[in-house]
Amino acid sequence: MPGGFLGVLVPVQDRIGLNVYGFFYGNVEAPVAQVDVPIRATKFLTITPSYLFYRVPPSGLNKASDYPVSFTDTFEENQFRIDGTFKFSLGTLEISDRNMYVRRFRPTDEINRYRQRIGIAHPLAVNGRTLKVFATYEAFYERQNGGWNRDRVATGVTLPITKHAAFQPSYIWEHNKVRGLRDISYLQFGLTINTK
Fold first, then answer.
1. Cα–Cα dist 11/42, whole Å
2. Residue 90 CB: number of other CB atoms within 10 A?
3. DSSP string, 52-105
4. Where are the domains of the chain?
5. Which mean pLDDT values do the consecutive 10-residue runs of the chain (196 residues) have?
6. CATH number of 12-194
């Protein structure tokens, strides 16, 4: 498929990676663990199957709820996901478009979700290291919850620690259209370990 609209094929040894993430969503006090296996299909397209687990304590649920209730149980969710990300450079800017299918396993049900995210990143050289400042906009679709039910805007920076590890603080704002959930903003702190 060389020369196709998605670009040239990538050599086999550079195609598959393994990433492990640990995040903490401040304000709602939710730890998140994620493992993904990015597979470079072409120079511009990456397909990534992944697994994510998170838990929100009662205090975090109370902050996210639009109703004056007092949650007493912790909420846990498992997600199996697959996405296709088209990424290219425009000068020094990195532009990405990610489309993701998510199967959500929650205590009460199992539902499907579609997520579409547009992102822009800019590398900056600081003291011999390259960090990346980024911003994203993401929309969520769940047919069972009213269709397009959430918008998320994020901005942050990826700070390299070693060749295979990075720290990623970011600020996130979510607009929720699901009945019972309020708009929420929080700081997210992430640690990424990768094999590339």
1. 9
2. 8
3. EEEEE-HHHHHHHBSSS----S-EEEEEEEEEEEEEEEETTEEEEEEEEEEEEE
4. 12-194
5. 40 77 80 93 95 84 62 83 97 97 92 97 89 97 91 96 92 87 86 85
6. 2.40.128.140
In contact, 20 and 34? CB cutoff 8 Å: yes
According to the model, what pLDDT value does residue 67 have? 57
Computed on alpha carbons and rounded to an integer, the radius of gyration of the chain in Å comes to 18
> Distance between CA atoms of 187 and 24, rounded to whole angstroms?
8
The pair of structure tokens assigned to 73 is: 């149980």
Q: State how far the Cα of 145 lies from the Cα of 122, in Å rounded to an integer.
A: 35
- Please tell me whether the overall predicted TM-score, pTM, comes out greater than 0.90 for this model: no
Give whole-number Cα distances, 9 to 5, 90, 98, 147, in Å.
Answer: 11, 20, 19, 36
Amino acid at 186: Y
Alpha-carbon distance 54 to 33, whole Å?
6
Residue from 140, 159, 151 nearest 185 by CA: 151
d(Cα 50, Cα 82) in Å, to the nearest integer? Answer: 6
Which residue do the tokens 């003291």 mark? 127
Closest CA to 106 of 135, 132, 80, 86: 80
